[in-house]
UniProtKB/TrEMBL annotation:
Residues 97-223 form the B12-binding domain. The keyword Metal-binding applies. It comes from the Bacteria. This is Cobalamin-dependent protein. PANTHER family: METHIONINE SYNTHASE. Pfam families: B12-binding (PF02310), B12-binding_2 (PF02607). PROSITE patterns: B12_BINDING. Keywords: Cobalt, Metal-binding.
Length: 343
């Protein structure tokens, strides 16, 4: 067991030390750090948002830069969760506010940010029902009818989940429960949250705590006003997703001869990338927001280049999808805008 000296949370070296501990899978060392901070009187909210959440953001950056593997990223996340649990175990606040249900939308697996929000709200006096990752919409609504919360906090970290987030938001509000949305999947400043009918949006756990502490619930719009999105092009892309991906993979081999030398792992990764292209295109069509796709392409290009995949491979991938959608002007325009992001 490593021995970690007590330090102030403002110590500039603390973040690097905690990152090393979670990266090494040192659960005991990570827990020692957070408990020592608590012993020194540091507010648990600061430990959760500044140290644990801040470190997790750096973990994601290291994976994107190909400096950490997926396995190491997952192991580090598990250690961060254990450290968060240690902080939560040292605090006990009796509920004085209402009841909040916290969930990740169907298909969303990034649960640590919502777990931090759950603990932050519990510290602020809320009775919290934390449902965790990947909560199917019907099960969420059943829970609302069984428990009658005052509000639902819904997280979406990846824009491809926006159609499912929309279904959940609409169903919650139809059940009479307002929704506060969070997560980068809702776009810069939460711009897509309003389109999908959420009553409010928060950039992070601290902002969500402040929003829910005052003037809640807000007077939102009629949920039916935003209940229907998507069009014929979106429907076509979703219904023909499998065919678009498989045809693109076939054409990609002809257009990018280097693929003939790929092993099975590389082929599987390429198929996943093609699926992401189609899914992000569908999400952009769903809410009529081209930046959803262009931001994805720019990010994917940087990730692939960090892994030694040339930009031409992504461009060819986009072309292989676009060639199947010549009769769909909005989809073609979005794909063209994505191609323009590849430098």
């Amino acid at each position: 067991m490593s021995v970690v000296p007590r330090r102030s949370i403002d110590d500039p070296g603390l973040a690097d030390e905690f990152l090393r501990l979670v990266g090494d899978g040192d659960e005991y060392g990570a827990v020692e750090v957070v408990t020592a901070l608590l012993d020194d009187g540091v507010a648990p909210q600061r430990i959760m948002t500044e140290l644990i959440a801040g470190t997790q953001a750096r973990v994601g950056e290291l994976w994107a830069a190909n400096e950490w593997s997926v396995a190491r990223e997952h192991a580090a996340t598990a250690i961060s969760e254990r450290a968060l649990a240690a902080v939560a175990a040292r605090t006990n606040v009796r509920p004085t506010r209402g009841r909040v249900t916290i969930a990740c939308v169907d298909g969303e697996w990034h649960a640590l940010p919502t777990r931090i929000l759950a603990e932050m709200l519990r510290l602020d006096g809320w009775r919290v029902d934390f449902l965790g990752a990947n909560v199917p919409g019907p099960h969420l609504i059943t829970h609302l009818h069984q428990t009658g919360p005052d509000v639902v906090a819904l997280s979406c970290m990846i824009a491809t989940r926006l159609p499912r987030a929309h279904a959940a938001i609409t169903a919650c509000r139809a059940a009479g429960v307002p929704v506060i949305a969070g997560g980068r999947g809702f776009g810069p400043g939460g711009r897509y949250a309003q389109v999908l009918g959420a009553d409010a949006w928060a950039a992070g756990a601290e902002e969500a705590v402040r929003r829910l502490a005052r003037n809640w619930p807000p007077h939102g719009q009629d949920p039916q006003l935003s209940a229907f999105l998507g069009d014929d092009e979106y429907t076509y892309v979703v219904r023909n997703r499998g065919q678009l991906i498989s045809t693109a993979m076939s054409r990609l081999t002809d257009a990018y001869p280097a693929m003939r030398e790929y092993n099975q792992r590389q082929l599987d990764s390429t198929a996943e990338d093609m699926a992401h292209i189609v899914d992000f295109l569908a999400a952009a069509l769903y809410v009529s927001e081209t930046p959803i796709f262009t931001d994805f392409v720019a990010w994917t290009n940087s990730v692939l280049q960090a892994r030694g995949v040339p930009a031409v491979a992504l461009r060819v991938g986009l072309d292989s999808v676009r060639s199947q959608l010549r009769d769909y002007p909005r989809a073609s325009a979005i794909l063209d805008a994505g191609a323009a992001e590849i430098k």
